[in-house]
Design a protein that fits this description.
Elements lengths: L7 H4 L10 H6 L1 E2 L4 E7 L6 H12 L4 E7 L4 E7 L7 H7 L10 H33 L4 H22 L1 H12 L6 H20 L7 H25 L1 H9 L3 E5 L5 E5 L8 E4 L9 E5 L2 E4 L1 H4 L5 E3 L4 E2 L4 E2 L4 E5 L7 H11 L6 H11 L1 H20 L2 H14 L3 H6 L1 H13 L2 E3 L2 H9 L2 E4 L1 H5 L5 E3 L6 H11 L5 H8 L12 E5 L3 E6 L2 E7 H4 L11 E5 L2 E9 L6 H11 L3 E4 L4 H11 L3 E3 L4 H13 L4 E4 L6 H6 L2 E5 L4 H6 L2 E3 L6 H35 L5 H24 L25
Parallel strand pairs: 15-22, 15-24, 22-23, 24-25, 25-26
Antiparallel strand pairs: 1-2, 2-4, 3-4, 5-6, 5-7, 7-13, 8-11, 8-13, 9-10, 9-12, 14-26, 16-21, 17-18, 18-19, 19-20, 20-21
Length: 755
């Protein structure tokens, strides 16, 4: 039924030219691990057999290191070794009947739905009228009256089969023409045999005809296919929404002062961009001139505008609200954070989890197995009583009822719904297989700085400082991007005049120095700012006037919102929670005490974290690792499943299976709850599909099912699987309720030190 991606046949018009060589190279991107990847639209992919055929063919192409098909997007990601010419993947796909394109045909998606709706309407009208005529025959019409009703049914069914069934006939013909099978071949054969046999019965004045079965089968199949199309389209609405937020271009400032509007695809790192108020930022960049407020809700989930000034990093997709900005592009559009989010959403269904692999293997074997089963059934009944009419009727019923549509839908439909549900909760899924691993996790490991905490030091005890001295320190701190300077500047006292320094200089690793009214002010390390007063080994931050300490500053890191509740929920629903950090022991113990974490390890190098994870895995633990920094990337890759915040370093986000976009750590237990529900629904769907086949197929082989009943049973099984998957979209996650966001200004009293 709807195991086939709807409308794939409509979009599958062969192209006169195929993307090769330079086109593939320009459309590809570096993965950073010695490989390049290109995503191609393959609109003819529409079932598990198609996925198997495409991936197998591509892996046989010399130079290809990997290929993965996404059924919902009907795209294939092909990888090859960097530095080599792109392999001839387009020709390989065209040779097996799947001509690829570089871009998805959005207009074709609308045409697909229109064709499906028209086909459903025609098939439904024909099925209703043929069914009314069949009721008359079932009620006892005989002789010429029965023949007349059969002829009218034949005349109604024929144009309906031609118009509504062309989707299946086109697909089946294309498959057979290229020497392969797909799920539409047995459907086309079953519908055609049912009509042909009914026409024979009509010509020979037989008592039974199955025009109602052939037309009703198409009607039910098309309903399921349309529902599947709408479901997948809605699930991908978030992806398309993100894509549409990407600006089409930007004004580029030339070295000679000229301005040139360029498409976003041609913007390269180092180019200077002018972004007016009200425009979205096209690529990841850094502010080099201007101040403004940005709407970062797309990236962080926070609705509060974020101020930016020269030196601030900005991400693609954020909206410039209040003033013009001059930016320097840091990444091309294809490598921006927004593009990464789109790719993660599209990859959510592409993972080959254990259940998915099982379902796809069965679906790929479907066509030959079902044909063999139907043929053996025909031979068996011919051997039993020699009635070829009954034998072929039973074979048709077997051909129809054995369609593994429910099995083909069992896993991908749940993954699509789960990915959408996670996105609504601010979590991006990089790999559908990660959902299965997340549900299996039985231990949690957190990094500290930037994960359990926000990694942004805050000034504490500011109310005890003299306002005049705080204003002087804030004026000095405003000239630096150091995190401690930013914390002092953010806490600047209100209602106090801002001092103006004659000169300001920053000494890296030491602090800031400025002259005002003939006095030398220093803000920084005590041993540098006031060397005669600082105690031996003192390493705090002070404000000194001509070498005399005038104020001391103390800082604390802030816990992530929802950190306490998230840790408590994970400890209750997953297993033991551990903190592994490279920070100093006092800072780690303070955070652990605030969050109720008993198992803490401090001053760890990246290799030490990997070793701890390996030891936990050797002990039978399946660890969920949550971290953000460069030093966490090896651990994120070594864990059973991993998550990182959107603020993580690029390498950390790339290594993680999930990325959460909001500050709150509540995303972790919510994602775990959704993953567990998705796992249960997948197992339920697989069980439903298996039970259906175990019960229905033997009954059909024994001759107790007519083609019409077979069509209804097969359609009902697929609708049951779809309905079960939709339960995930409705109910709350099991851990969502207990996790409430904590106050944003939740700080710790431990000193802030380096990681």
């Amino acid at each position: 039924m709807s195991c086939c991606a709807p409308g794939a046949e409509v979009l599958g018009t062969p192209s006169a030219t195929l993307p090769e060589g330079e086109e593939l190279l320009l459309a590809s991107r570096s993965l950073g691990n010695g490989e390049r990847q290109v995503e191609l639209a393959v609109p003819d992919v529409h079932c598990g057999a198609c996925i198997h055929a495409v991936e197998t063919a591509l892996r046989r192409v010399e130079g290809v290191t990997g290929a993965r098909v996404n059924l919902s997007t009907r795209r294939v990601a092909v990888r090859w070794r960097e530095g080599l010419a792109p392999p001839p993947v387009a020709a390989a796909l065209a040779a097996i009947g799947y001509p690829p394109h570089l871009f998805e045909d959005e207009a074709g998606r609308d045409r697909t739905l229109s064709e499906l709706l028209r086909a459903v309407a025609v098939a439904g009208f024909a099925a209703g009228n043929v069914m009314l005529l069949s009721v008359s025959v079932w009620s006892g019409a005989e002789g010429a009256t029965r023949d007349l009703f059969h002829w009218i049914s034949a005349l109604i069914a024929l144009p309906a089969l031609v118009f509504a069934g062309r989707i299946y006939y086109r697909s089946a013909f294309n498959a057979l023409r290229h020497g392969r099978m797909n799920m539409d071949v047995p459907i086309a054969i079953g519908v055609s045999l049912a009509y042909a046999m009914s026409l024979y019965e009509t010509l020979t004045h037989g008592a039974h005809a199955y025009f109602d079965a052939s037309v009703s089968l198409l009607f039910f199949l098309l309903i399921g296919r349309t529902l599947d199309h709408v479901m997948r389209d809605r699930a991908r609405a978030a992806v398309r929404g993100l894509s549409r937020l990407m600006p089409r271009g930007a004004v580029v400032l030339a070295a000679d002062g000229g301005r040139d509007y360029r498409p976003v695809e041609t913007i390269e790192p180092g180019m200077r961009l002018l972004i007016a108020a009200g425009e979205r930022i096209p690529v990841d960049a850094r502010v080099i001139a201007g101040t403004s407020d940005l709407d970062c809700a797309l990236v962080t989930g926070e609705s509060r505008p974020q101020p930016v000034e020269p030196g601030a990093a900005v991400r693609a997709g954020t909206l410039n609200l209040s003033g013009p900005l001059t930016l320097e592009a840091e990444r091309p559009a294809s490598a921006s954070f927004l593009a990464e989010m789109v790719r993660m959403m599209e990859a959510a269904e592409g993972g080959r989890a254990r259940y998915r692999r099982i379902a796809e293997r069965v679906s790929a074997l479907y066509a030959p197995v079902v044909h063999l089963t139907a043929f053996v059934t025909f031979l068996g009944w011919m051997a039993v009583d020699g009635d070829w009419h009954k034998a072929i009727t039973v074979a048709i019923a077997v051909l129809i009822i054995t369609c593994p549509c429910a099995l083909g839908l069992a896993v991908p439909i749940v993954q699509v719904v789960a990915a959408r549900r996670l996105f609504e909760n601010g979590v991006m899924v990089k790999d559908g297989a990660g959902l299965e691993r997340l549900a299996e996790a039985d231990a949690v490991v957190f990094d500290k700085t930037g994960t359990l905490t926000l990694g942004r030091p805050r000034l504490v005890g500011a109310e005890a400082l003299a306002p005049e001295l705080h204003a002087i320190a804030s004026a000095l701190a405003a000239h630096s991007r150091h995190p401690l300077s930013e914390a002092i500047a953010e806490a600047a006292p209100r209602g106090v005049a801002t001092p103006v320094f004659e000169t300001v200089a920053e000494h890296p690793g030491l602090g800031l120095e400025g002259r005002m009214d003939g006095r030398l002010w220093r803000l920084g390390r005590a041993a540098w700012a006031a060397p005669t007063e600082a105690a031996e080994g003192e390493d705090g931050t002070v404000l000194a006037e001509d070498g005399v300490v005038r104020a001391r500053f103390h800082f604390a890191d802030a816990l992530r919102p929802g950190a306490r509740e998230a840790v408590a929920t994970l400890a209750r629903t997953v297993g033991p929670v551990t903190m592994l950090s490279g920070d100093a022991e006092p800072a780690c113990r303070a955070v652990a005490a605030a969050l109720g974490i008993a198992d803490v390890a401090a001053r760890l190098m990246p290799g030490d974290k990997v070793a701890r994870l390996a030891a936990m895995a050797a002990g039978g633990r399946k660890v969920l690792m949550v971290g953000d920094g460069l030093n966490d990337a090896p651990a994120l890759g070594a864990a059973h499943v991993s998550m990182a915040p959107a603020t993580a370093a690029d390498i950390g986000r790339n290594a993680a299976d999930f990325v959460f976009l909001r500050d709150s750590l509540a995303a972790v237990p919510v994602a775990r709850a959704i993953a567990r529900r998705a796992g249960r629904l997948i197992r339920q769907n697989l069980a439903l599909a298996i039970v259906y086949n175990v019960i229905a197929v033997p009954i059909a082989i024994l001759g107790h099912v007519t083609p019409l009943v077979a069509a209804i049973a097969m359609s009902a099984s697929s609708l049951l699987v779809i309905g079960n998957a939709l339960r995930l979209a409705g109910g709350p996650g099991e851990a969502a309720a207990p996790v409430a966001p904590a106050p944003r200004r939740n700080t710790l009293s431990a000193p802030v030190t380096a990681r």
